[in-house]
Amino acid sequence: MSAASAQLNSTPTTAVTASEALPTAEQHGIKEHSDGRFGYVPVQTRSDRFKSVNVADFAAVTGREAVWKLSPVKKFADLTSGPLDGSVYPIDHTDVAGVRVDWVDRSDSRIGSAGAPEERASANAWSSFEQALSITISGEDAKEATVTRAALGSGARGAHTIIEAKPFSRAILILENTGEARLTENVEIILGESANLTVVSLQEWGDSAVHLTNHFATIGRDARLKHVVVTLGGSIVRVNPSVQLTGIGSDTELLGLYFADAGQHLEQQVFVNHVAPNTRSRVTYKGALQGQGARTVWIGDVLIGREAAGTDSYEQNRNLVLTEGTRADSIPNLEIETGDITGAGHASATGRFDDEQLFYLQSRGITEDEARRLVVRGFLSEIVQQIGSPLLEERLQAAVEAELTATEDN
């Protein structure tokens, strides 16, 4: 499915409480529906969604909300409405010059500078964390660092992370998640002028882990963010990146790879907001599904604002279905508020193996099982090969191979 809209008369408003989140007809120059006379006009522009860092400002989650309607909300009610453990937790990290990792108080001036929660689980984490994990990157030399979490436990937890790339800095940062957890968190990513940062969020959780995370990024003048989401493990994993291109000439590439097995729910809701002129974005997410009840959700929102002349944007999602009994939801959305752009587009596709590819490979003496493996490996390798870390790329290729072996065993 896909949807696109061009909206030329939208005036953003700032909401403070839940009651103020309902827009008026005058806000967008439209009228309420004549049937029913409920007096409600839905939010017309993606950036106008209600935001608050206070969980009490959000109504209880029912599953009928736009942000939750495709999620199994009953399975993580403790993360949306219950009390959370917001204390610090064990981490491991590589010792790399130019990368500082420490804990900071809630009063840190950077907190809240990249974004704010748009839904209750995110706000619950924001209201609950005691200290934020701070990762600060400096220096123009290229570097790579890994931060690992592996012992979060089975209790409901809230967390907050700040990633700041100083002006002109360059780095690859890998956020590695393993073990069991019930976690809702927010990650803020702040890029200074001409910074070049790759953030890889790697989810290799245990079989029963539940992880809800929102990544908020703001990109300065001529800075470039490559944001990569790789989800292979966990029972329910929902990673929602939101990127604001606020600096002239800023650039972002959002990549995603996911492999859903039987009973897994893997979800991504992506938002790219072109605010400044001459900005560029590319969004490419690819996933494979196998096993009864495997479910993936991808929603991609791109907004090209009134002042974003010269924007160049494209988003796409591709899903490969390997077995019966799976479901993939793929919904790209594009909003354009200016006609002065370089280009914009979106695409979505979900399907099974290409019979012609399989026939070609089998005609060259390759068995059907091996031909299927080659097709899937090639399909997902497009994402892996763009990460820029040879060791991580090799490791992820092996992980995908293990998933494919599990498919054959089943």
Overall outline: globular
Q: Which series of helices and strands comes N to C?
A: EHHEEHEEEEEEEEEEEEEEEEHHH
- Please describe the biggest sheet, giving its number of strands, its sense, and whether it closes into a barrel: 10 strands, mixed
The assigned structural class equals alpha/beta
Q: What's the domain count?
A: 2
Q: Approximately what portion of the residues adopt beta-strand conformation?
A: 35-45%
Average pLDDT value?
89
User: How many strand elements?
Assistant: 19
- Low-pLDDT ranges: 1-30, 33-38
Number of helices: 6
Radius of gyration: 21 Å
> Strand arrangement, largest sheet?
1-18-16-14-12-10-8-6-4-3
What is the helix content?
10-25%
- Tell me the distance between the termini: 30 Å
Commentary on this structure:
The two termini are 30 Å apart. The N terminus is likely disordered. 15% of the residues lie in helices and 40% in strands. It has six helices and 19 strands. The strands form two sheets. It has a ten-stranded mixed sheet. The protein folds into two domains: 343 residues, no CATH class; 58 residues, no CATH class. The chain is globular. It has 410 residues and is an alpha/beta fold. The longest helix has 20 residues.
Describe this structure in a few short sentences.
By secondary structure, the chain is an alpha/beta fold. The chain is built from six helices and 19 strands.
